Amino acid sequence: MPFMRSIGGGPSGGVAPCSATPHADDAAHLKSCGRPGDRPNGLAAAPCDAILGNTLFGRWWMRGFLSVGVLGVLAGAVLGAVAAVGVAARADFDYYSSTFRASGSDMAALGVGYGPEFTGADSSVVAPAAYLHTSLGDGRFVELVGTMLTANFLADPQWQIGPALNFRQGRKSADDAVVERLHEVDDSWEVGLSIGWQLQDPNNARNRLRLGVDLLQDVSGGHKGLVADFTALYRQEVVARVDLGVLAGVTVATGDYMNDALGVTAADAAASGLAAYKPGGGFRDIRIAPLAVLHLSENWQLGATVGWARLIGNAADSPIVRDRGSENQIFASVSLGYAW
């Protein structure tokens, strides 16, 4: 079965199309289309030299230029949208923005998400969704998932490791009149480490599995805690234009984070009537989200996901959740992506 499938037809000019099976000894084909895995979106691509230049320096320069430019635009758009919606967008933005994660494609995507007003809320809001993946060569890349920026500096086909930077919005107010009387939860900037392992089908890179963990420590004096997010994502081509998959995850956090986000102080209890509560560290939630990707053309993709998260342990026992919110958190998103 050909490694690359063409929806829009192959490139012209006498170069073999990328839908043809590449051979290791076919220098012309490898120069044009790359080795298996270089174009993992499963669609035909224009010759690499026509896009990135004829030299290694040219390819790295172009990739770096595109990375900085697209990343700046997307990061500005996401943080601007977060500021614009203010208190209405306090959910974890990576929930809305993970549809295209681990697709393997160089891609920029924007969309809209719908989910809980804050962790534990039973009210929902609209929030932005954004994704960027841009290759730096040899398996290295920069990736933006919602408000979390990560990089992989390891030149390995399976293992990924690099720094992570995340913006986690707090809780300044709430639609619920009782929760509104509780202490404010400050915004937090978090830094840490992103580790991943992925496996892809050698005959079709649209079929892939990724396991990962993002370890994020607050460094801005917000919640002052550590949040660890473990994820598993699987995607598979089901027909020429459609991929289906599922994202599962579990979040673990220290007591500092849990107490800030879900605790009720003595002053909170007096003001709100809720019972005082100081949660310890542990599991925050488990979640699962089926996803679908429609390949509209060689470059354009439409992605959608609908997910369910369940607060567990000390998080579920919080009066904010038990008395005023919900253990069940529903989220969804639709995003339009451009792959190159």
UniProtKB/TrEMBL annotation:
Keyword Transmembrane: yes
Pfam family membership, one: MipA
Cellular compartment(s): Cell outer membrane
GO cellular component: cell outer membrane
Main location: membrane
InterPro entries: MipA (IPR010583)
UniProt keyword list: Cell outer membrane, Membrane, Signal, Transmembrane, Transmembrane helix
The keyword Membrane belongs to this UniProt entry's keyword annotation: yes
Bilayer-spanning residue ranges: 65-89
Family under the similarity heading: Belongs to the MipA/OmpV family.
Protein name per its UniProtKB record: MipA/OmpV family protein
Organism per entry: Zavarzinia compransoris
Lineage per the UniProt record: Bacteria, Pseudomonadati, Pseudomonadota, Alphaproteobacteria, Rhodospirillales
